Amino acid sequence: MELYDLRVVVDRIEGRSVCGMQVGDYFELTNSAEVRIPEGKHFCIYAMQAVTPLLPAKQRQLPAGDWLEKDSFVCCPDPEERLIMRIERTRKVKLNSEDLT
Asked: Is the distance from CB of 94 to CB of 2 less than 8 angstroms?
């Protein structure tokens, strides 16, 4: 099976950054389920929680007309921050589905 590795990037902050994140901060989802945050950085758990439900779908190739194939932006639930994240596909990897649960 083939899945995309993903990078979730802080695209913009339209309010004030209460959690201390900055534009360009990111985390990566690799090999189906491994979360990686650059050393010395952090990613707000509440922002991560907002984007997490969409990641399994973004890991797969979707039909061209699917709204999620065209849309890659997610906002943090904190109304004061208005932190906007962008989901990027970084590479396609081949995985053996028998190795996954």
From this structure: yes
* The pair of three-digit structure tokens given for residue 62, joined into one six-digit string: 């979707």
The count of domains in the chain is 1
Q: Which domain holds residue 75?
A: 2-89
Structure tokens at 13: 């902050």
Separation of alpha carbons 31 and 1, rounded Å: 11
With a CB cutoff of 8 Å and minimum separation 6, the contacts of 82 are 13, 14, 15, 75, 76
Spatial contact of 2 and 28, defined as CB atoms under 8 Å apart: no
What are 42's two structure tokens? 């952090």
Per residue in 45-86, pLDDT (tens digit) is 999 999 999 999 999 988 888 888 888 999 999 989 999 999
Specify if 16 maps to a domain: yes
Report if pTM > 0.85: yes
Domain-embedded: residue 66: yes
Instruction: Give CA–CA dist 2/96, Å, rounded.
Output: 9
